[in-house]
From TrEMBL:
Recorded topology in the membrane: Multi-pass membrane protein
Homology family: Belongs to the CpsC/CapA family.
Protein name: Wzz/FepE/Etk N-terminal domain-containing protein
Swiss-Prot/TrEMBL keywords: Cell membrane, Membrane, Transmembrane, Transmembrane helix
Transmembrane regions listed in the UniProt entry: 172-194
Length: 460
């Protein structure tokens, strides 16, 4: 994955990232509220040494050497048992030991006593009591008799006071850690979902799937069937179809392909491709165009006449091609309806055999014939049309068509003897549609390398 792929993954799934981050914060708050409050108080002892002889330096060195061993005495029964009796604590000796600590800061004669309790005042009382009894215990152990009398006198210099707040749980730190865990989980989920998501959304997705350029990005559009011509000539929908037409002209050396076949890679992929408007655009160039309806299940681009001859009748010999060609009232566009095909394998084979001369005649009559057909269409499916097609475009739908669908469609068309020349992506949100359309370079088109593209702005 490249850096912009990570950006796409995070932006497209920002909701789940936000939800998991909030879930991490909520979990941290819940855990913090469930944890018991622990208050911590500190008392400080100053260890003073008095001797009958020796210099001040000797007394200082004696104090520094001896004070290092005093912290271990804080957990002795001689210190803690009097504290339990004095404060009437409902704690055992082992329980009190776990809540008491003592340390000696480096190169000092101070002893710091720390006590923990569920109540702030009790924490201070325990710290002061332990410090007091620790000092007495040290005095008993270090006091000797004789000519070189040495007296160690620990004094409580900084008594413990009730703490202002608990030391545990540390809610702010827990929330920060929870937010970090939730955010990390959201980002990892977004990356994993992006890598596992095989739906096509960009030209790079299509390029990596089949190695073919996207020659048109058509925005989302909903219209009533059989009602083309509803766009202004400067609308984004019209411009998108014009960009596709520009690519077709460049691919054909400024000549329109006689038969353009549109093959949807997934159900509904061709819904945003407005065959009627596209045909009107071609007709506006002064070209003679015919829209060939090859799928009786699709709504026709022009005309809604239930009666009359259609493609099925022409292929079965029940009608002449001339009788099936009709002209739209909105403009100089001809069209042939799908008709009512007869079911059966034999009938399908007959229609396939009759399709070649019919399509050849349409190529001779019109500058361009436009047909949309899937592999399951009737009366003519895509595999029956591909051998006669001059330019085949596979239609994929933004965020719906998957890589495997596109690859399978490409393989089926290649097996029929005519690999596709490009991909059209439909249903693209206007804010996601690229501002520049990929145009096939004339020299590359002449060399047949249509998959190599350059970006150019056709609106300039």
């Amino acid at each position: 994955m490249e850096l912009r792929d990570y950006g796409r993954a995070f932006v497209s799934r920002w909701v789940i990232i936000l939800v998991l981050t909030l879930a991490g914060i909520g979990g941290a708050l819940a855990a913090s509220s469930a944890m018991p409050r622990v208050y911590e108080a500190h008392a400080t002892l100053f260890v003073k040494v008095e001797t009958g002889s020796g210099s001040a330096y000797e007394r200082s060195q004696f104090s520094l050497q001896r004070v290092k061993s005093y912290p271990s005495l804080v957990k002795s029964p001689e210190v803690l048992e009097p504290v339990i009796r004095e404060l009437d604590l409902e704690l055992s000796l082992s329980e009190l030991r776990t809540s008491i600590e003592a340390d000696n800061p480096l190169e000092t004669v101070f002893l710091n006593v720390t006590a923990q309790s569920a109540e702030p005042q009790m924490a201070a009382n325990i710290a002061n009591a332990v410090a007091e009894h620790l000092g007495r215990h040290i005095r008993r152990l270090e006091t000797t008799s004789g000519d070189s009398r040495v007296t160690v006198a620990p004094e409580l210099t900084v008594p413990a006071s009730p703490p202002a707040g608990p030391t545990s749980p540390r809610t702010i730190l827990n929330v920060a850690v929870g937010a970090l865990i939730g955010l990390s989980a959201g980002l990892l989920f977004a990356i994993a979902a992006f890598r596992l998501d095989s739906r096509l959304r960009t030209s790079r997705d299509v390029q990596s799937a089949v190695g073919m350029a996207v020659v048109g990005h058509l925005p989302r559009y909903r219209s009533r069937a059989g009602q083309p011509g509803g766009w202004a000539s400067n609308s984004k929908h019209w411009m998108a179809h014009r960009e596709l037409l520009t690519n077709l002209l460049l691919a054909g050396h400024t000549e329109l392909p006689p038969l353009v076949l549109l093959v949807p890679a997934s159900p509904g992929a061709g819904a945003s491709f407005q065959r009627g408007n596209f045909a009107l655009m071609v007709a506006g160039m002064g070209k003679n165009i015919c829209v060939l309806e090859t799928d009786s299940a699709l709504s026709p681009a022009f005309g809604q006449e239930p009666d009359g001859a259609g493609l099925a009748e022409v292929l079965s010999g029940r009608a002449d091609l001339a009788a099936a060609i009709r002209t739209d009232e909105a403009g100089p566009v001809s069209y042939i309806l799908a008709g009512k095909p007869e079911e059966g394998i034999g009938r399908s084979l007959d229609r396939a055999r009759q399709a070649v001369p019919v399509l050849d005649e349409l190529k001779a009559r019109f500058d361009m014939t436009l047909a949309e057909s899937a592999v399951t269409s009737s009366p003519l499916n895509a595999q029956q049309l591909v051998p006669s097609a001059d330019h085949t475009l596979v239609i994929c739908r933004y965020g719906k068509t998957k890589r495997d669908d596109l690859r399978r469609t490409f393989a089926e068309l290649a097996a029929a003897g005519n690999p596709p020349q490009g991909v059209v992506m439909t249903g693209v949100p206007l804010r996601r549609r690229p501002s520049a359309v990929p145009l096939i370079h004339r020299a590359e088109a002449a060399a047949g390398r249509h998959s190599r593209i350059r970006d150019a702005d056709v609106n300039a």
